[in-house]
Amino acid sequence: MPKMLAALLLSSTLITPAVADDITAWRLFVADHSEAKLTAFDLESGAVLATFPLASPASLYRADDAVFAVQGAGNQVSAIKTGISIDDHGDHGDITIGDPALVEGVLRGDKPAHFVEHGGKIALFFDGSGLVSLVDAHDWVEHGELDITERDSGTAHHGLAAPWGDYTLVSVADAENDAKPRLGVNVLDAEGNVVGDMQACPDLHGEATSGNMLMIGCGDGLLVVSGSGEPKIEKLDYAGLPQGKSTTLIGGQGMQYFLGNYGADKVVIIDPAEAEPYRLVDLPTRRVHFVTDPVRPRFAYIFTEDGQLRQLDVVKGEITRSVKVTEPYSMDGEWSLPRPRLAVAGDVIAVTDPNEGKVHLVDAESFEIARDLSVDGLPFNIVAAGGSGSVH
């Protein structure tokens, strides 16, 4: 009997799940407007975790547990591990927390600009050469390996490229015109050969992904990309909207929709599946920056030049709440002046305030400023990384 009892106890131990603690961790990564540096903050404590030197001030993007710093003037792109990884197990996620770290491999080229990640592959468009670098996000972040596949758009221009499975969408410009106006998009196969005819997209600018759909902004409408295998591309014109165009697009998360600018003091909610795909939203004053909320999918946030952060209910199609966060930031003057940028970190909306050297943290539920982080220099571009998971 003692042996049988011991066996039963051992069996019970083996099938009993390990005790786990559920924790939430978020970090903010802030790029300076003038200095070539990136600073990582712990959201809860406000402590600086690390500061990373860069080659020039950077635009920031998130993908594959990393932040990618696109340094246009420095002719390079750096990857920084966030130090927070969540392993999805279906019914729960396991979270691993470590130190943020600079990845050794650096992608170099002439004036890197547009960064697109889709399906684990990154496309980086270099405005100075018109070349595109395709790299595997995981191999870059985890191993520092840059096994680059290169594509040529045909001429240097302010363009974009987007991976789509074995295909790549690449912008096309008029090489004979000194202004290099964008004309449309070519689809390239796995060998880099053009598939079909160019998709017309005059004044091409801006792209976003939502769910299994990608959208590209044009002067005469929007290119909507869908399907598996070879991409299916359709033009959605601006029918029903006043004269204008969308040049900045972001994709909904948790709900499939797109949000775009439309004139200086308007945004447009776009759902290509609807009979009337556009809902135009007027703003009290000009728009500075906007983001969607991955935690509360029906909401997006818009910062306007009067210093107000506004909550947009994309289901109702209207502004539902507002809070004054900063002093006014006029949209007059150069487009490149330091102005606030937004990021959503769980239950917090972070707003950079370059003039005051702060990041304001707005509680997403109460929609009031909860606290501020002091930041040296001119805090500008910002991304958030983190989430909730179990630690066994």
TrEMBL record:
Phosphoprotein keyword on record: no
Keyword line: Signal
Signal peptide region: 1-20
Keyword Signal: yes
Protein name, per record: Zinc transport system substrate-binding protein
SUPFAM superfamilies on file: C-terminal (heme d1) domain of cytochrome cd1-nitrite reductase (SSF51004), Calcium-dependent phosphotriesterase (SSF63829)
Organism field: Devosia elaeis
